Amino acid sequence: MADEQLYEKGMKVRRQVLGDAYVDKASANVDDFNREFQRLVTQYCWGEVWTRSVLTNKQRSLNNLCMMAALNRAAEFELHVRGALRNGCTPEEIRDTLLQVAIYAGIPAGVEAFRIARKVLQEEGVI
Fold this sequence. Notes:
This protein is 78% helix and 0% strand. By secondary structure, the chain is mainly alpha-helical. It folds into 2 domains: 47 residues, no CATH class; 67 residues, AhpD-like (Up-down Bundle), CATH 1.20.1290.10.
C-alpha cells in the first residue's frame, strides 16, 4: 500500500479512537521539527497496525492500557483510557485490565493507572 494511503487510513482510525479535537490539536502543532514524526505515528502506528483485522480496536485499546501503565507513560495512558471508552471498553473491562497490570507490572504501576483511569472515567461520566 502506498505511504499516502496508509497515512489516510491511519488518520481515519486515529480520529475514531482519539477524537477529532485531540487530532486537530496535534495537527495544529505540527512544524518543521516534528512533521516527520507526526507522519510516522499516523502512517505506521495507526495506518499499519491499528487498521489490521485480527484484533479489534477494543482489544488494541486494552493492550495499550497495559503497555502505557507498565511503561509509566501517564499522558499517553490518560489519552488511551479515553480512546478505550470510544472503542467500547467498559469501566469493568478497564478495571480488570488494570488489576492485571498491577500484578504483572507492579503495584506502583497499578496505583498510578487506577488513579488516572478513575479521573478519566469520572470526567467522562461513566462512574
